[in-house]
Every structure is written in structure tokens, then in C-alpha cells.
Amino acid sequence: MNIRSQTAKALGLSEIFNLIGIDGEYPAEVKKQELQRTPRPLGELKSHFERLQQMIDFLKGRENEMRELKELFAHIPKLEIPAKKGNRIFALHELFLFKQWLYHYGRLHSWLRKKAWLGEFILPDLSQVFALLDPEGGALPSFHLSPAYSQKLGEILHRQFQFANRLKHSRAEFLATAREELDLPQLKEEFTISRAETQLANRILHSPFFVLSSESVANYSFVLADDEGSLELKKELALLQEKREAEEAQVLKKLSISLGEYLPSMFAAQVLLNIYCWLFTLADFAMRYGCSIPKLSRKRVLRIKSAVNLPLKLHLESLGRRWQSVDYDFNKPVSLLTGPNMGGKTTVLKTAGQLCWLARLGIPPPCEEAEIPFFDHIWYNQSESGSEADLSSFGREVVAFSETLKQDGNTLFLLDEFARGTNPTEGEKLASAVLKHLCDSRHFCLASTHFTAPALLEGVAHYGIAGLDPAILDQKKPLSPSQRLKALNEAMNYELQRLKTNQAPPLSAIRVARALGLPQEILNLTQTEE
């Protein structure tokens, strides 16, 4: 797993991606392709978000139309359309898939044309291509080689039908004769009798009417034999089938050549359809989860109003716990977060990483407003999976950080307690050195720490988590661990506050430990002076 994949996993992006989507194999395939595509350049990304805003504006408050569009997209089959003309002869099942795709594409095309408010999202008309695969004008998604394609094929099919009927009547007459001769009026064309019925079995075996099709230890199975008339009819049908297959091959060849002329147009239409499907999918996601269209630039400013970590929010709500959206205003190359344990520092870093990653992919981030820098890379130091067996967690962190620094472009560094895996004295020095270096680089960094020295650095914007409200905490007397966590959650104010330069981080670990139920006799020992 490479650094990018590790970071995506650590940020919980797959959980957010799972929330994006509408029903149907085709929308699922479009989503898969979009999530795997090479990130767009800044100009193209801005245009994408402008079109997405249009789609959201068009669909807002139109629940019926949303349902109709979801149904239309869900029925479109997944299909790979060649981009260029070619000499390929398509098989019957391939033409069936083409027609099925054209049928449902046509339904969506027709629906869009009727919606004047969706004038920016019109698809090319492919009705001529559909007509090519629908010569009888049935306007159905199914396909067969119709006699309308070839007079000769129609004549062959007509003769096959006639001979098949004659064969059916011939065998019916032969079966009637068999019933009369054997005095068995209930006989069918195929039947099974027990070996124990020796006399009956011998009569049938020695008659010209039936042949033994299979036998077992217990039973005989018979099938109606062919009389001379039936044999002749079957020979005629076999010859007709050969002629039919030869003529169908010619029809397929001509039809494939005709269809091939339209392939570039179909491919272009599918490209546009994919764009609309993805825009609609993202609009649906944005409206369901309160997402916004971000303002993207190359300025090193990250401002978010009411940022939401969707996986965490949904998890907390499922537990009946409170979620608090937080505003971010990071306008320095390096911003440092300090504050209490369980105060949300890691959540701020992960949420910022999620929103920036989503914006980079053209996905609207869950927040009220967003001004986001255009990052080439995003790296989170808690993403190391431990695949390097010969390195400690500290070693992996240092190696990955150094490798990320070598990448071209600008990077968002998310440093959650960098160097905490080594001794505190040197860890504090390393954390300070890294932040100093990033202050003078082209990169952007959000960091958290419990060390004091990094918070005193010049040029580093220092933010604190507002922290616990003792009054709220004292009102509650929780007993179980889950009750204590809920009480701590309700008493914690997760807002970010800009602190003064050279202001040391606030201390609150002992208060948090008390709230979580650490025995009082141990807490008393923290007051002991050596």
C-alpha cells in the first residue's frame, strides 16, 4: 500500500465514499471510474464545481424529479462502447446490449428535453441509432434479427415455421397411431416405466413407435421414434437452419458496419452521460448531507464554516451522542492545535484532511462554506500501516515524512503529535524543527501536540480547543464507562480559539482523567511534590 492509499485509509475516506451513490450497476461503475481517475487540474476542477452547483440549484426542492432521475439512471446498463469505427462484427448478444443501452439512454434524453430548467444538461439525440436496431418500430429494449433486415431471411424463417408445423402434425399423427396400435391411449412422446412391468416394456421395445432413450436399474425411458415423413421434414429443417445461419451472418455483418459508423457518436454521448450521472450522484450526496461547493485557489488559506466529519457524526448520532460542527480559519503556512485529551484535535486534522481530499476529487465537502487550497498531495502521519517490519512507529513516521517532502508540488501535512513515538525531550525538539522547516516551505501544515516548545515558535499560528466546561461536567454523575464518555462529550466545547503568540498550551489531562473515572487516590498522587 503506497503513502497516498495509506493516508486515504487513515482518514476514513472509504466510509465517506460509501455514502456517495445511487442505485444501479451503471452509476456504480461511473463512481468507481471517477474515484480512480487522475485528479483534475485547478481550472478543470473549478469548471466541474460550477456545473455541480448548477445541477444542485436545478434539483433543489424537486423531490419528484430526483426520484425520476434516479430511476432513469438505475436502468441504464453498464456498457463499454468503442471510441472509434472498426471492422468488428458484433455478436447477437452484443447488439442486444447496445439496443438496451440506447433504449434507456433515449428515455433519459427524452426526459431531459422536457425539463426546461435543466437546459444546461441536454444529451445528443441517438434516436437514429436506436431505429437501426429497431427496424419494426416496436420501441422495446429487446433485440432479435428481424425479417425486416432481409427479405431472404424472412422467407427462410417463414419456411422454417411451415416445416416446423408440418413436423409437429406428423409426429402427432405418428403418436396417435402408436397409442392405437399399442392400445395405450395415455402415451406421450416421452415417458418412463418401471422394469418390473416386463410385459409392457417388451411390447414397447419391440414396436416401431418408440426408442429407448435411457435406462437404469429400476426404469426404462422412451422417446417417440421418427417415421419416414418426420425424418424428411427434419432434414429439410436442418438445411433451412444452415441457410438461416448463413443469412444471419450476412445481416450481422451489414448491421455491424452500419452501427460502426455511429460508434464515435455513441462514445461521445456516453462520455457526456457519465459526466451527468456523476454530477447527479454528487448533487444527491450534497443535498443529503449538507455539502457545499468549495472555493479553490492556490492561496495558503483554509477556511471552513461548520466542518463535518461524516463518519464520526453518523457514529455519534447512532450512539445518541452530540456532534458539534467546528469552524476553521487557518491562514498561516503552519497552524498548531493544542488542548485537552479527547478535545477533538485529531478530529480537526482528520476532518480537514477529508474535506481537502474530497474537494481535490471534485466531491463537495460536508460543511456550510469552504475556502480550500489546491493541494497536489495530502499526508497524514497516522497513516503508516506498519508494513516496514524493520522500523518502529517512529521510524516509519520519519521515513514517510521525508519521502513526502521529496514530492513535487505542494502538500497538506497533517501532523498528529509528530514524534510522540520517541523520548519526550528529543521528540519535542524534532517536532519544533519540523514545524520551523514547514513554515519556510511551499507546503501547508496542520499539526497537534502536547509538547510546549512547538507552541512557542514564531511564525506558527497557535489554536486551542476551548475544552471542558466544569459546570456541565459537575452536574452529571455517570457510573458506567459509556455514561462517562457521553458526559465528557456533552461537557466538551470543541470550538477552536486563536491563542496568543508564545502562549503555552493549556493543561487539562488530569481533569479529563478524573471525568473518565481514574481513582481519586491516584489523582491525589498527582499533587504530590517530590
Strand and helix map with partners:
Layout: H1 3-10, H2 13-17, H3 25-36, H4 42-59, H5 63-75, H6 92-114, H7 127-132, H8 151-182, E1 190-194, H9 198-205, E2 210-215, E3 219-224, H10 228-289, E4 295-297, E5 302-307, H11 310-318, E6 326-330, E7 334-338, H12 345-360, E8 369-373, E9 377-380, H13 393-405, E10 411-416, H14 424-439, E11 444-448, E12 461-468, H15 470-475, H16 481-491, E13 492-498, H17 509-515, H18 520-525
Parallel strand pairs: 4-8, 7-11, 7-12, 9-10, 10-11
Antiparallel strand pairs: 1-3, 2-3, 5-6, 5-8, 12-13
CATH topological fold name of the largest domain = Rossmann fold
Total separate domains: 3
Tell me which CATH architecture of the largest domain applies here: 3-Layer(aba) Sandwich
**Biggest β-sheet: strands ordered side by side in the sheet:** 9-10-11-7-12-13
State mean pLDDT (0 to 100 scale): 90
Gap between N and C termini? 48 Å
Can you tell me about this structure?
With about 525 residues, the protein is of the alpha/beta class. The protein has three domains: about 5-140 and about 250-290, MutS, DNA mismatch repair protein, Chain A, domain 3 (Orthogonal Bundle); about 150-235, no CATH class; about 295-525, 3-Layer(aba) Sandwich (Rossmann fold), CATH 3.40.50.300. The chain has 18 helices and 13 strands. It has helices at about 5-10, 15, 25-35, 40-60, 65-75, 90-115, 125-130, 150-180, 200-205, 230-290, 310-320, 345-360, 395-405, 425-440, 470-475, 480-490, 510-515, 520-525, and strands at about 190-195, 210-215, 220-225, 295, 300-305, 325-330, 335-340, 370-375, 375-380, 410-415, 445-450, 460-470, 490-500. It has a six-stranded mixed sheet with strand order 9-10-11-7-12-13, sandwiched between helices. The protein is elongated and about 115 Å long.
